[in-house]
Design a protein that fits this description.
This protein has 376 residues and is an alpha/beta fold. Helix content is 42%, strand content 17%.
Length: 376
C-alpha cells in the first residue's frame, strides 16, 4: 500500500505513535509518506520505503495566522499526485483530517479512490472538540473520514457522547510499544545520571501541561521524601516547568528533584526507575505509562480516562484518585518500601506490555483496518 501519515512533529504520544507506525509499516514493505511541518519526533530517517515531506507555510503579510491547514492540504495533494497514495492516516481530527478531506476533494478527478483514516488521541475531543467553534468542525472531520480509531474504549465512548456521531465507523485500536527497544535492564550505566545508588528513583515523563498536574506530583513527592531516601527525576519540558521549579525551591527539595529536560532516547532512562508516576487530570491512553511497564517498572497513576485499560491496579501498578495528594504519596510509599511487591508488579507490567500491546500484535490490526478501508 501507498500510505500518507499526517501528524504533529512535537513530543507526545501522537507523534511517537505516528512515527513508529510509519517505520513499522515501511519495514513490512509498504510505501509510507510522513507529512508534517517539521521532522517528527522519533522519525527514523534513512529507512527504505519511508519518506518525509515538509509542509511549507508561507508568512504572507495578509495572514495574521499562517493557514497551516491549507498548506498541509496542498502538500497532501502534491504527494498524492506524485506517489499515488491509496490511503491517508490523519493523527488528530483538527487540522489533519480536515486537511485530508480538502486534499481529497481537490483530487477527485485524479485520485477519487484515496481513503481517509483518522485516529483520535484525546485532546482533539477533550479540549479542542469541546470548544464551540471547533465542535462542528471536529464532527465533520469524523463523519467524512472513511474510518475512525480511538486509542481507548473510554475515548471512543467520550467521542460518541460528545459529538453525537455514528458509531459504525468508529473503533478502538490501542497504542503499541516496541518491546525489543523498551526492555528491563537496558543501559544500567544511565542510572547514575538520575540519582545516587542508595536512592529510590521515581520517574515522570511528560510535556508539563496543566492537565498532567505536575505540581500535585511535587507535593506528593515531598511527603514521600520525608519517609524514604528517594529522588524524583522529571523528564520533558512545557508550560508548567517553571512553576514546578519554583515549587521545588519553596518545599526545600532542590537536592532530591532532578530536572532532566527533553530526552529523546527515553528507553534508556525508563529501566533505571523504581517507580513511574503519572498523576494526570486525564489521559486518553497513557503511552508513557506503557513505556515504563515494558521496562518492568510499576506505575502509580490517576484513575482517569484510558489509564485503567493500560494499568491494572494491584497487579501492574496502583491507580489513585485524581488530585488526592496523600493517597498518591501512600501508594508510592507502598511500593517503594516493599521491594518484593514492587518487583512483582514490575514483572507483571512487563508481561502485560508484551502480551497486550507489543508492536507485533498491534501492527497487523492496522494493516487489516487499512485493507478493510480500501475495500470499502
Amino acid at each position: 500500500m501507498n500510505i500518507g501519515i499526517l501528524c504533529y512533529p512535537t513530543h507526545g504520544g501522537s507523534g511517537v505513535v505516528a512515527s513508529e507506525l510509519g517505520a513499522a509499516l515501511a519495514e513490512r514493505g509498504h510505501n509510507v509518506h510522513v507529512i508534517s511541518y517539521a521532522l517528527p519526533f522519533r522519525f527514523q530517517s534513512y529507512r527504505s520505503n519511508l519518506t518525509y515531506h515538509e509542509v511549507e507555510v508561507s508568512a504572507y503579510p495578509l495572514f495574521k495566522y499562517p493557514p497551516y491547514d491549507l498548506a498541509m492540504a496542498g502538500t497532501i495533494m502534491e504527494v498524492a499526485e506524485a506517489y499515488g497514495l491509496d490511503l491517508l492516516h490523519a493523527h488528530y481530527a483538527i487540522p489533519h483530517a480536515i486537511s485530508g478531506i480538502l486534499a481529497r476533494e481537490m483530487l477527485r478527478n485524479g485520485n477519487p479512490e484515496m481513503k481517509l483514516v483518522t485516529t483520535l488521541h484525546g485532546t482533539d475531543i477533550t479540549i479542542i472538540g469541546q470548544q464551540r467553534v471547533y465542535k462542528k468542525v471536529t464532527s465533520f472531520g469524523i463523519a467524512r473520514s472513511d474510518r475512525v480509531t480511538c486509542v481507548s474504549n473510554e475515548l471512543r465512548s467520550r467521542t460518541l457522547g460528545l459529538l453525537e456521531c455514528d458509531a459504525d465507523h468508529v473503533e478502538v485500536l490501542p497504542n503499541f510499544i516496541d518491546v525489543r527497544r523498551f526492555v528491563p535492564g537496558c543501559c544500567p550505566d544511565k542510572r547514575r545520571q538520575l540519582g545516587r545508588p542508595d536512592e529510590k528513583i521515581i520517574l515522570h515523563v511528560s510535556n508539563f501541561r496543566e492537565v498532567k498536574r505536575p505540581r500535585d506530583m511535587i507535593q506528593a513527592f515531598a511527603r514521600v521524601a520525608g519517609k524514604v531516601n528517594a529522588r524524583l527525576a522529571l523528564v520533558g519540558d512545557g508550560p508548567e516547568l517553571t512553576a514546578c521549579k519554583e515549587l521545588v525551591e519553596k518545599l526545600g527539595l532542590r537536592r532530591q528533584v532532578s530536572f532532566i529536560g527533553t530526552y529523546d532516547a527515553i528507553w534508556e532512562l525508563m529501566p533505571q526507575a523504581d517507580l513511574f508516576y503519572l498523576p494526570s487530570e486525564y489521559e486518553s491512553f497513557g503511552l508513557s505509562a506503557l513505556e515504563a511497564m515494558a521496562c518492568g517498572v510499576p506505575v502509580v497513576a490517576s484513575h482517569t480516562g484510558g489509564l485503567p485499560e493500560v494499568v491494572t491496579s494491584g497487579q501492574t501498578g496502583i491507580l489513585v484518585p485524581v488530585g488526592d495528594i496523600q493517597v498518591h504519596a501512600d501508594a508510592m510509599l507502598e511500593l517503594l518500601c516493599d521491594d518484593h511487591r514492587r518487583r512483582a508488579y514490575g514483572a507483571a507490567a512487563r508481561e502485560a506490555a508484551v502480551s497486550r500491546f507489543a508492536l507485533e500484535k498491534i501492527l497487523p490490526l492496522w494493516e487489516s483496518l487499512y485493507e478493510r478501508t480500501l475495500k470499502g
